[in-house]
What we know:
Blueprint: H1 21-36, E1 39-41, E2 49-51
Antiparallel strand pairs: 1-2
Amino acid sequence: MPSPFDEMSDRASPTYAGGTPAQRERRDFLSAAMVREGFLIEPDEWWHFDYKDWKDYRILDIPFREIKKK
């Protein structure tokens, strides 16, 4: 990837043209796979994706062990 995870520089942009061709190829591969499954890319962070209808779900701040199986 052109930047480390959670780096807040221009290199974190999903459209950053720098870095090596291999870094951009991996970033673009991840982005394409996520978009194909309905996720949206955060414009400033290549690693940050939201699901298309994420606003329909409230945020839960609970431990995983408390989530009940259906």
